[in-house]
From TrEMBL:
This is Glycoside hydrolase family 18. The lineage of its organism: Bacteria, Candidatus Daviesiibacteriota. The chain crosses the membrane at residues 51-73. Signal peptide: none annotated. Keywords: Glycosidase, Hydrolase, Membrane, Transmembrane, Transmembrane helix.
Amino acid sequence: MRKIPIISKLWNRFFPKDQNLLNQPSPPILLSQMQAPEEKEIKLVERLLEFNLGVSIMMWGALVFLVIAVVVWKFDLAGYLSRKDGGSKNAYVVTTKGLNTASQPKLAAENSSSPLFISQFMVEPKKIFEAEPVSLKLTLTGQLKKEVFGFLPYWMMEKADDLNIKLLTDVAYFGLEVDGNGNIVKIDQEGKALSAWAIWNNDKKLEAFIKKAKKNRTRVHLVLKNFSADNISQLVQSPDASYNFINNALYLVNSKSLDGINLDFEYIGTPDKKVIDGFSLLVANLNKELKRQYPKAKLTISTFVDAAANTRLHDVEMLAQSSDALVIMGYDFKVPSSPQAGPIAPMEGYGINLMGFMSSYLEKVASEKLILAVGYYGYDWPVMTSDPNGKVISGDVKAIPYAQLMEATQNTKIQWDEKSQTPWYSYIDRETGKTRMVHFENSRSLGIKYDFINQKHLRGLGIWALGYDGRNTDLLQLINDKFAI
């Protein structure tokens, strides 16, 4: 550094070589005698200072810009994700005729495998029963060796008289909603009676159906549901709300002399341990009081298909101890908002599948406590290509009941996915010219699942939902062939 001329001169001026000079007083220097530094040296120092200042400003500016960019990116990404979940203009549009979208819960991320959507999707019963059936003579051979637990949604009550319940051991009316205080929700935000409550409270068809079921020795249950994470958290962590809920549940069972209760509490995401433990305690207390008042009554809990493998509201080991059975919702692996089409309930393959998740259940819960529920429906996506796992494009996604699928495929080539052991087909929409992809369940894929139920000695079969097969008899025959003695 001292070899640089300007620095060398400055060094020698303040640090002279002759150390004796340090001990001698300096003679006064007149202003007129002072020599001005050369202009080149002054300019060089000024440039050095300017350069250092400029570098400092640039470095600090770059740092501030980086911090701002990261913050903006983070918030923009969060906004983007929330728009996808909330339904932006570019999000998938789902056919939801008759669906109360205001109360519809958000879908879980696809890899969380949370079966939820189909339990909120209403269909048109009239169209289901108008669909041309596949002719098959129904032959019932004997008594069932497994439980067959069918869910009857309130929107299917208008066709309750047409339902064949001879192969049902249990039927559950779906369903009355519960709020965070343990009360039954009876009216909507506009003050109008909710359809599910109106049918429960004053509908002759429901009363007639209950009598028909009892005559057939089919047990009748009531589904109490809650799809709000906030309401679930409030309910299970409040002793007063829990006590109120149990009283309401038992009153409803008593009011129609029912045979049991099914809880369908669907918390999307990962709850706190306090919430998980609170739900387990609520179930234990409900079961204890239910058995005290009605010893033969049954308590079943609907659980996510991945609940034994991941941290969910449902602690399956605890719930199995304080209930009669867990109804595993083994469907909706793909949902309307999925970015790619695919099987709704793959038996194998695809990374996540029924075989894998059921193995997790069987490691924690006795097989006689498990009911595997299957779906009588399919999803129809608009896709970019006819590949069975084609990318979904913006457009309407449809949930199609089994009866309408059978009618639609009478002259269509049905493909078989060996990996998932499920059927699919594609077609061109005449109105839009778009390729559409449909994945669904049929007697072949359901038969494989029924064989699994028998092989693993599960308690039985669940059905979502009764009436979705319309006037078809092949699925009833399949139940008879697989589970009748």
